């Protein structure tokens, strides 16, 4: 590989301009609820159809990088994740905004997104062949167990009752079952309603469960009507805080890279898993998780942006997209007569190097771009509730309709908002519903793939697990997580840890 191929981005200033424009467009597109990263990228694909290949690729990658970060802005200020990857950011970002620390939260997410994105780009450059080999080892049974493992993590994510979290997760999985079956075309829970045949849209559920339910909750709670004055000072990066949390950033980025390299996963799952591991590994945070812990922003934001670079690993090596936006880039490559996959390096080496350079430089551009307009955005949290709440409701409706241009999605969003309101009143975690919806489809799809490959024989399932070292490791981890959820085991573990701490204090 000639090192000069990586400097094509600097030798052609218009490529840098396209990359920077894509990053800015992605940031503000991702900040609007309902405008997903894939949707913003699809707009750019349509606009760049007549462009040359290199400028089009630079713009699309820029939108991908900026969009994943942009979703955190509305997640922090409005409790509405702009993108599914920003779901975990709402858990601690919005409580920080309610305390008057919106600027601190926005700067933290910006810095962690950049650091995680750069680490993901380095992984793409250095460890792509090894990670691709690892991804190829994953069979449908492994994806099934990993997805099921995510359901078992619901209790730790909610911070409350495990039973309530599981119930909410199962409700989300049920929502994912509604619609026409993708394999058999059988209608499930549609009740002859044509609008339900396409299923329940995840964006409608996200906006309803978080945005609309939050509005209803604040209307019903007089204590929530007070506006907290935001501590808006000089926008600056706290280097000491970045260094202090770098071990967590590194761990979360590794999780994002590992999950992002698996086709069909992406930043939404990576951020949830990273948030869960942060809750388990961070001892004695200054602020409890779920109440405005800064670690609750560091973990998901570094993970979901690290997953961006990792999503291009299977694309460059196998021609398989790691997520929906990488799939759009594959479509753009085909439109320009370029075939992604193992032959890309041999036949289009300059494109291969451009993609890697765009991901690395795009994350560097993200830092100044993400810090722009933070004071103006932070002021949103100071708007009186009687003015802000109707605007949020309007934004929820417009964002939901804009996602697919379907008024039925708006009805779903309204229903989910009311359900989410009652769930919040009775301390059911709304985030578990969305996570169940995301993981439920993966669990069903990969379980059915495995059943088809083994002709429905249960014994073959365990036989193949024993025969595969990777499957064995995943299965053991899953069993350990299941055992740890048993009340007796939880109590025993708590007593053991208490005795260890008492022994050290003596």
Give the overall silhouette. globular
Helices and strands, in N-to-C order? HHHHHHHHHHEEHHHHHHHHHHHHHHH
- What do the pLDDT scores average to? 77
Q: Looking across the biggest beta sheet, what order are the strands in?
A: 1-2
Cα radius of gyration in angstroms: 22 Å
Unreliable segments (pLDDT under 50, ≥5 consecutive)?
none
What's the count of strands?
Answer: 2
Percent helix among the residues?
Answer: over 70%
Relative strand content: under 5%
* Structural class by sheet pairing and helices: mainly alpha
Largest sheet: 2 strands, antiparallel
Query: What is the CA–CA distance across the termini?
Result: 60 Å
Total helices: the number is 25
At a glance:
The chain has 506 residues and is an all-alpha fold. The chain has helices at 8-11, 13-30, 37-47, 53-78, 90-98, 102-126, 128-137, 140-152, 154-158, 162-177, 202-220, 239-244, 246-260, 267-281, 295-318, 324-335, 344-347, 349-371, 374-378, 385-404, 407-425, 430-454, 458-467, 469-484, 487-505; strands spanning 179-180, 187-188.
């Amino acid at each position: 590989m000639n090192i000069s191929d990586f400097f094509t981005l600097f030798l052609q200033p218009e490529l840098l301009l396209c990359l920077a424009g894509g990053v800015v467009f992605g940031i503000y597109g991702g900040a609007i609820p309902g405008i997903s990263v894939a949707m913003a990228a699809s707009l750019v694909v349509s606009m760049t159809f007549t462009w040359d290949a290199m400028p089009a690729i630079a713009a699309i990658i820029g939108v991908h990088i900026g969009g994943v970060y942009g979703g955190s802005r509305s997640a922090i200020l409005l409790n509405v994740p702009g993108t599914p990857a920003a779901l975990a950011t709402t858990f601690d970002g919005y409580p920080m905004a309610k305390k008057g620390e919106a600027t601190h939260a926005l700067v933290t997410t910006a810095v962690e997104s950049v650091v995680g994105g750069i680490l993901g780009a380095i992984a793409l450059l250095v460890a792509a062949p090894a990670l691709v080999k690892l991804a190829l080892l994953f069979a449908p049974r492994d994806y099934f167990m990993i997805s099921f493992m995510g359901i078992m993590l619901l209790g730790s994510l909610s911070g409350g009752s495990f039973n309530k979290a599981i119930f909410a997760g199962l409700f989300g999985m049920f929502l994912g079952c509604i619609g026409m079956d993708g394999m058999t075309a059988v209608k499930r829970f549609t009740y002859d309603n044509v609008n339900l045949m396409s299923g329940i849209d995840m964006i409608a559920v996200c906006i309803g469960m978080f945005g609309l339910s939050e509005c209803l909750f604040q209307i019903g709670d007089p204590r929530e009507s007070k506006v907290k004055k935001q501590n808006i000072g000089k926008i600056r990066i706290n280097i000491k805080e970045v260094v202090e949390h770098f071990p967590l950033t590194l761990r979360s980025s590794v999780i994002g890279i590992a999950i992002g390299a698996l086709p069909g996963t992406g930043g939404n799952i990576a951020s949830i898993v990273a948030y869960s591991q942060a809750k388990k590994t961070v001892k004695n945070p200054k602020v409890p998780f779920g109440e405005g812990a800064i670690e609750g922003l560091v973990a998901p934001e570094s993970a979901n942006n690290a997953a961006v670079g990792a999503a291009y690993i299977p694309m460059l090596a196998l021609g398989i997209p790691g997520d929906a936006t990488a799939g759009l880039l594959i479509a753009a490559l085909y439109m320009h007569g370029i075939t992604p996959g193992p032959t890309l390096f041999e036949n289009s080496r300059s494109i291969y190097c451009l993609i890697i350079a765009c991901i690395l430089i795009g994350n560097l551009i993200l830092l100044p771009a993400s810090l722009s307009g933070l004071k103006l955005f932070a002021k949103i949290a100071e708007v009186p509730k009687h003015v802000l709440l109707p605007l949020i409701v309007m934004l929820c409706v417009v964002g939901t309709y804009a996602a697919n241009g379907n008024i039925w999605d708006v009805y779903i969003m309204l229903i989910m908002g009311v359900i989410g309101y009652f769930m919040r009143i009775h301390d059911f975690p709304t985030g578990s519903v969305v996570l169940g919806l995301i993981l439920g489809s993966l669990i069903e799809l990969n379980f059915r793939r495995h059943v088809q490959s083994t002709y429905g024989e249960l014994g073959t399932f365990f036989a193949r697990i024993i025969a595969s070292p990777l499957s064995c490791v995943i299965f053991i981890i899953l069993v350990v997580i299941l055992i740890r959820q048993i009340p007796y085991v939880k109590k025993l573990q708590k007593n053991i840890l208490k005795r260890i701490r008492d022994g050290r204090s003596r």
